Amino acid sequence: MYNKLTQEIIDELIKIVGSNNVIYNNFEALEAYSHDEVAEKHYAHMPEAVVKPSSAEEIAQIMKLANKYKIPVTPRGAGSGLSGGAVPVYGGIVLSVEKMNKILEIDKENLVVVVEPGVVTNEINNAVKEYGLFYAGYPMSVETCYIGGNVAENAGGGRAVKYGVTGRYVLGLEVVTPTGDIVHLGGKVMKDVTGYDLIHLMVGSEGTLGIFTKIYLKLMPLPQAKVDLLVLFHDMDTAIKIVPKIMTFGRIIPTSIEFMDDLSFKAACRYLNEKIPFEEAGAMLLIELDGNNKTELEEQYEIIGNLCMENGAIEVYIADNATTSERIWRIRRNIAEAWKQFSPHQSLEDVVVPISEIPTFIKKVREISEKYDIPIPCYGHAGDGNIHATPIKKPELSMEEWHKRLKELLIDLYMIVKELGGTISGEHGIGHKRKDYLPLVLEPQHIEMMRVIKKALDPNLILNPGKII
Amino acid sequence: MRIIVPIKQVPETSNVKMDPVTGTMIREGVENVVNPLDLYAIETAIRLKEKYGGKIIVISMGPEKAVEAIKEAIAMGCDDGILLSDKKFAGSDTFATSYVLAKAIKQTGDFDLVICGERATDGDTGQVGPGIASFLDLPLSTFTSQILSVENGKITVKRLVEEGYEEIEMMLPAVLTVVKEISDPRLPTLRGKLKAKKMEIPIWDAQKIGAEGQKIGLKGSPTRVVKIFTPKVTREGEKVIVKDEKTLHQAIDKIIDYLIEKELI
């Protein structure tokens, strides 16, 4: 149903973006664009060509060309995605926004920053810091990912409890449509109900409905201080019961509430040679608070710390400086790496359940883990119920057996999530990794609505085909 | 046991940038922390106290905000703190600093051990610990990696030396500077933080410790900073890039050949 690229089409692409910005007939260079951060090789697919445009106009021309010849186009940010969203499943063209990496405007009066999609998310914060501002979207891969990818995936991350996810900060978009038109949605206004909310249709559309060329982001005043609490509990039940109490009794909304089960933190602590007495713990919470002065934060960590101690915590550690804060966070950040020492084959899942169901979910995961004889450490964002349950292939298991078991295991896992009132992806997206499982959690009418929208905007189905639906 | 732990508050240096023109650190917006190597001295002192009982006094010379560093040490488990702060101390080099710390340590009364970090991560000299020992005229073990025993007024320690380890026995009181492998510093607990918060840290000035005006500050400092520059890295090397399993073995062979050629193995 799609056509292959020909030399003639390549020549036309070169005419649009210049020969320096087209990769073709170069296996090694193309290979880098065949995958994202999903480790499993069979999710990768080679593109026929990579193009690196520098403007919305160039992208519009590429899309018109692609429609004319029925060539699939897959937009790509930094390639740090976790659902295969940037993988060119049907080959064709990978459209990399890496050249579009400028911060176009920092508007201090309106607290808005206007950026191109290829800006590394962390760069935005480096640039606005001197004005006492910050961009609150914060995926864990903040130092490598692009803002364009964050918007396409509606990325979440560690600060979502207090600050929400990417979509909350997107005020406007310049988008190239699948048919090659340039359209402007929203802008610097904080309120906008003029017509359908197409901005938030685009946010999280995983590159299937349009290519962002300009992004208007809302900025916030930069908090001046932060403090982290690492809390050890005997079991997950006790740990999770604290989460709503922090907000109701404590009247505090932390920046993050991360949790780790024993499989997760024990692996990370051993890997890091961390000597806090973690062996006796069954669950850990990592709570981060931010604010404008140290005294206020001291009061808050006292309230939360005491609440934890009164409700069965083994120990509360306080990190209010860079040395100790880094020591605490590196446990959370090294879980995946630590398990890679055991086995490089993992399936990083991204399910969401209502917060109170986290302990039940983890108990059920343990049952699944036993049933399939596959370790499944669970960690993630307790403050919003987003759990990175991560099945890991035992080294002695054959790849064939691993894939077979994983497929069945994931169905079991997703069914549990559904029973508990949750869903299968909170922040990584569907891509083609979870596409087959979508009908497990979405009503047929829901999927049909998405299909109709996709068809209306992209009649030739050439923009990032093979994703979501 | 009475143990004194002198500590220093330093700029947090993991993300620090250097000014390429002046060769100095850009301090703007940089957070201050307890010198990371001092955490090992604090931990060593706490473990000795847990074993033998006693009291740990943390002292630090610096501006008033260095009280944060002292409180962090108390939150970890030290008992008392003293801040040495006086305009007259400003500009002290390692010699004058050692003198001030030694004077203050004497002022605290009898003690058994002074435990210092190996060096501060900002000045990087490692001179203050030995300096204190010499002003107090006490035995010294630098680069201490393990405490083997404390008994009958003597301490036996293992210290890291160029060729390996050395075991030495010293009379108490004595001064130790410790290296990382001696212990793993604990994290401050909520209880510790609350205790530290309530505590008043006394501030001692030059007069209180009986320091002579000629021996402190710039006047008491024989060191003069003439020029700061970034040294050129003169070590030369050859890169062997490994792309796959085949080149990995080639690389290993190449390195082994090199080591044999230089008679290193």
Q: Main β-sheet of chain A, in a few words?
A: 7 strands, antiparallel
Strand content of chain B is: 15-25%
Largest interface, and how many residues on either side? A-B, 24 and 20 residues
E-strand count of chain A:
18
Radius of gyration of chain A: 23 Å
Helix vs. strand class of chain B:
alpha/beta
Mean pLDDT of chain A: 94
CATH topology of the largest domain in chain B: Rossmann fold
Query: In what range is the share of β-strand residues of chain A?
Result: 15-25%
Q: Characterize the main sheet of chain B.
A: 9 strands, mixed
Give your account of this protein's structure:
- The complex is a heterodimer of chains A (469) and B (265).
- Chain A is α+β, with helices and mostly antiparallel strands.
- Chain A has 16 helices and 18 strands.
- Chain A has helices spanning 7-17, 27-31, 56-69, 121-128, 147-153, 160-163, 199-202, 236-248, 262-272, 294-310, 322-333, 335-342, 358-372, 399-419, 438-441, 444-457, and strands spanning 22-24, 49-51, 73-76, 93-96, 103-107, 112-115, 133-134, 170-176, 182-186, 211-218, 220-221, 225-233, 256-261, 283-291, 313-319, 351-352, 378-381, 386-389.
- In chain A, strands 15-12-14-13-17-18-16 form a seven-stranded antiparallel sheet, with helices on both faces.
- In chain A, helix 1 runs antiparallel to helix 3 and helix 13 runs antiparallel to helix 14.
- The longest helix of chain A is centred in the C-terminal third of the chain and has 21 residues, at 399-419.
- In chain A, 48% of the residues are buried.
- Chain B is α/β, with parallel strands linked by helices and 265 residues long.
- Chain B folds into two domains: 2-215, Rossmann fold (3-Layer(aba) Sandwich), CATH 3.40.50.620; 235-265.
- Chain B has seven helices and eleven strands.
- In chain B, strand 4, helix 2 and strand 5 form a beta-alpha-beta unit.
- In chain B, helix 2 (67-76) crosses helix 5 and helix 3 crosses helix 4.
- Chain B is globular, with a radius of gyration of 22 Å.
